[in-house]
Design brief:
Layout: H1 2-25, E1 28-29, E2 40-43, E3 55-59, E4 81-83, E5 88-90
Antiparallel strand pairs: 1-3, 2-3, 4-5
């Protein structure tokens, strides 16, 4: 029983640390021009308690990537989300 508690605590610590460090790894931005314009957009999280108006550079979806679910930036400029009979991809 104690080993299960220790493993759960360890996993929670790993998740917490990954969330904390992900904010330091992502490049912060205020507009798309501050990101790699060809491959990224400046995404502003829509969290309930957002205090800052600062965004993060996020990658666009590339050709062939699944775009069924809403993502931060969507398809790369020049591509659009296209429905095929079996999938929805950036084309």
């Amino acid at each position: 029983m104690i080993s299960k508690k220790i493993s759960v605590i360890f996993i929670l610590q790993l998740v917490f640390m990954s969330l904390v460090t992900s904010n330091y790894i992502q490049k912060k931005c205020l507009s798309n021009s501050e990101c790699d314009v060809e491959n990224e957009c400046c995404y502003f999280p829509t969290e309930y308690f957002t205090i800052s108006s600062q965004g993060y550079c996020q990658q666009y979806l590339k050709k062939g990537d699944n775009c069924k679910w809403k993502t931060d930036c969507g398809c790369k400029p020049g591509l659009k989300c296209t429905y095929n009979w079996y999938d929805i991809t950036c084309q």
